[in-house]
Amino acid sequence: MALTVAPEEPPKTGRRSERQEAWEAREQQALIPPPPVVITPCDPWPRPYYFEDGLRKVHPYHFTYNTHCKERWRGRELLEIFRSEFRDRPLEYYKDAIETGNLRVNGQIVTPSMPIQNGQTISHTLHRHEPPCTAEPIGILHEDNDLIVINKPAGIPVHPAGRYNYNSLVEIMRADRGYLWNPMPCNRLDRLTSGIMFIGKHAKAAEAMGVQLKTRTVKKEYVARVIGEFPEEDVVCEQPILQISPKLGLNRVRADGKESRTIFKRLAYYPGRPQKGSMVEEERSGREVERDGKMAWKGQEGYSIVRCLPLTGRTHQLRVHLQFLGHPIANDPIYCNQRVFGHDLGKGDASADADEDIITRLSRMGKSEVAEALAYHEEMVEEYNKKKAEKMTGKVCDTCQTPLYSDPGVHELGIYLHAKRYECAEGKWAYETKLPKWALPPEGEEGPTKTKKDTDPAELADEIEKLGIGEKVPIMKDGEKKAGALGCARMRSLQ
């Protein structure tokens, strides 16, 4: 229960005194409502989209971020808070924003040295530049009065977050169906991941499907493109997964992690080099070839298309298990990042010894560099930064003087991970997409263009459960590795 300070009683005299007048003045001042907090100055409708070079773009617009005083901010000066915690812009920008009133406290213009107190609201109005995303349409697999089943393109976040607002799945769908329409996602895919999602048309339907998806009554199948030649045998990985950095969203195999289980089955292997433009391989110079020859993972020729059946639903489960097996997703900016995990890319590593170093390296790179990755070691970081610098157009925004960049490359829009099939275990419904383009045979080579019923991992999972194959192998301590498939069971195909 909140404490309320009782007002001081006025003097009980028949004659007005200075004390009584002062009390009345304080009382009158207390009744004045606080100034209104700055709100978003515009909510453009229709949304300011335009399309160019295969990308969905958003015309810049003014937007106000409102945030309540956090406990760690109490007593600290306003400018100091932005200097230490909002480092995406230079200090001079924040000084100017405070002086011009674009940065306010409780709706009032203040000084840079003003100490922030509990209960205050900081409002920052800026000219917002959203990153572009793919112009690929959101595919509709099924729609009824309760649900829409969609095929989400890679590179689109589900909800507004960070730099993304109107270029988010819910806002794009709202723009297509009407301002008052409220899409309710029942499951979530990472921004970089594509595939099946369920959107509720009303709260009851969204809740019902959300509950079903969280249980083990839904069979899920993903497809991934990984480094090297994945084993022909079916692989069951049962390594527990622990989140070692909530801030960075980093997860790793750990003996004290949550129970995790995934079945992997190779669909195809292509021994040639990955296609030009992938984050793992581009056209390399002679110096790069010599340099890469010193790295174990670079010696893995070609890539594999792998079907993934998660039997549990841990964050980044497929990405972490594939990394542990030595076959990370080929363009994964975190788990296929040599600068973060070293020359072996974390293969078979279940030790916590290097966690602090990994977190430090990942944090030092910064969110933008991680998201745009290509940085596997210091030399490649240097080369990447040169390419990144070339993306600067040399122009600035006429309104806010923000430097303008050229459009993102294909490698920045998504990773090679796709949610291909969702199926009710009771056989009431099933939804499936085609294989994504990156999973199809490269030009001039033969390979599968769709998955076959007789190799359906959902059926494979049932057989594994019945036969009890794939018992958990304990993780060894002090860096020791279990013989075989690194603590995962391999088995002959059951077909």
Please give a structural write-up.
The chain has twelve helices and 21 strands. It is an alpha+beta fold. Strands 7, 8, 9, 10, 11, 12, 15, 16, 19, 20 and 21 form an eleven-stranded mixed β-sheet that branches. The longest helix is centred in the N-terminal third of the chain and has 13 residues, at 18-30. 32% of the residues are buried. The model is unreliable at 1-11, 274-284, 366-390, 470-487 and 491-495 (pLDDT under 50).
Key words describing this protein structure:
alpha+beta; 495 residues; 12 helices; single chain; three-stranded antiparallel sheet; 21 strands; globular; disordered C terminus; eleven-stranded mixed sheet
Structural class, from secondary structure content? Answer: alpha+beta
Low-confidence stretches: 1-11, 274-284, 366-390, 470-487, 491-495
Number of strands: 21
Distance between the first and last residues' Cα = 65 Å
Could you state the oligomeric state of the chains shown?
A: single chain
Mean pLDDT: 78
Share of residues in helices: 10-25%
General shape: globular
Gyration radius from CA atoms, angstroms: 27 Å
Main sheet record? 11 strands, mixed
SS element count, helices = 12
What fraction of residues sit in β-strands?
Answer: 15-25%
What order do the helices and strands come in, and which of them pair?
Blueprint: H1 18-30, E1 49-52, E2 55-58, E3 61-68, H2 78-85, H3 91-100, E4 103-105, E5 121-128, E6 133-134, E7 139-143, E8 147-152, H4 169-177, E9 184-185, E10 194-200, H5 203-214, E11 218-227, E12 234-237, E13 241-245, E14 250-253, E15 262-270, H6 286-292, E16 303-310, H7 317-324, H8 338-341, H9 355-365, H10 367-372, H11 378-390, E17 392-396, E18 403-405, E19 417-424, E20 430-432, H12 457-467, E21 489-491
Parallel strand pairs: 10-19
Antiparallel strand pairs: 1-2, 2-6, 3-5, 4-5, 7-8, 8-10, 9-10, 11-16, 11-19, 12-15, 12-21, 13-14, 15-16, 17-18, 19-20
